[in-house]
Sequence to fold (332 residues):
Amino acid sequence: MEIRKLGQQEHQDSRRLYEEVFEEDSASFVDYYYTEKTRDNQIYVVEADGGIRSMLHLNPYRLYVNGSGKDVNYIVAVATQKEYRKRGYMSALLKTSLNDMYQAGESFTFLMPASESIYAPFDFRTVYEQNRRFYRSEDEEAADIVITDAKDEDCRELAGWANQRLAERYQVFAIRDEAYYQRLIREYECEGGSLKIYRRDGQIVDCRGCYPNEDNERPKIMVRIVDVRRMLMALRLRSLTGVCFCVTDPLIRENNRCLVVTGTEFSGVMLMDGKEENSEGTITVAALASLIFGAGSVEDVCREEGVEMSQRMKEELGKWIPLSGICLNEAV
Fold:
């Protein structure tokens, strides 16, 4: 058994496993995925008995996080051939890719789980339910709205409109550019759909997908902190704070450390290495993700296994402003 990252010219070699495991995906979608998305992604595989038996894809996104741009990977297409399951292949791929992402300087990663219980043991936490808005034929009845199918020449304008709108509403979202919307148009088209632009007096006011058979499911998004220090530096504060605590992470050794978090509502977070004898508590990397992304309160995470906090630490962590304004509606 060997774990390795495929070279760009080898990406198509993973298609057979994709089609075998994700048989519900249409041939046209798989064509789209292996034409568009594998052009710039990373594919980790387990090879055994002369073939690819397990894989994990990292699809790159540029995310807006509290006003800054961050390179973040979306974990997708996690798959193992049926005959090779229960051998720890997925676990090995996750550990390898997470540590590589740490070395690359990434703050966190995210995925859409087939089941939350699969990824919770690897310290992923659910932080968002996707909320996609779809075109309805009755939208055409609005007297002052003109709805058209998006074309490549619309993509730059769409990106500018979307980034401004999203930044007004959210703390975390995928930054749009011309290529983002060109890919999204292809994604809808491969399933017989389209991307609709809504205009009022010539100005974009909305953008929605149109699928022949869209469903009302709201897939969940889970995040996993990759670099604790980089993640903490993305936070903003309500007021002056100063606290020393330890973080535990069973998968990324470098995250196991004692930290001093200080700062104000004006300066943001400042970090220093702390001494364990000065620590006011311990928090797991999973509980920290829940707290940072607003999925749990300080009191919630205090009840988790492996978390201990002094009363003062609880009060200081309560001064953190969580990244709860999330919009991550991407499919792949």
About this structure: The mean pLDDT is 98. The domain at 225-321 is CATH 3.30.1050.10 (Nonspecific Lipid-transfer Protein; Chain A).
